[in-house]
Structure prediction request, 140 residues.
Amino acid sequence: MKLRYLAAVPCALVLAACSTGGTDQTANLAGRSLMWADGITAECEVPPTIKFGADGKVSGNAGCNYLVGSWSMEGAKIDLSGLGSTRRMCSSAIMKMEDTFLQNLGKTVYATAEGDKVHFLDAERKLVMTLVPEAPGACN
Prediction:
């Protein structure tokens, strides 16, 4: 009976590796400043950015408004429920991008890393958005 359970362990590990694509790792976000990869367009003034402090604080720019709050991680599971932003109005294109970015943050349950990219995933581990290291002048 015990042998049957031992044989199931390697199979479960293989399935777990396949479910994450085998290349993703738990993201180490502390001290990183990232920007939304899809926010880097010719039209944008500043792509949405988010900085994860080692102290559990978040800061950034959602596109038009400042982003502040807190974050925590346990394994690949990330908690971004303590986020808030200012309430300025900008052009409709920037507000649309900002709304999408904030909605994506609200859907995020897991964070994985692939090289220098960070993938935010929903509860079903489907990709919500990809973040890349923040780079000055990305929207020039």
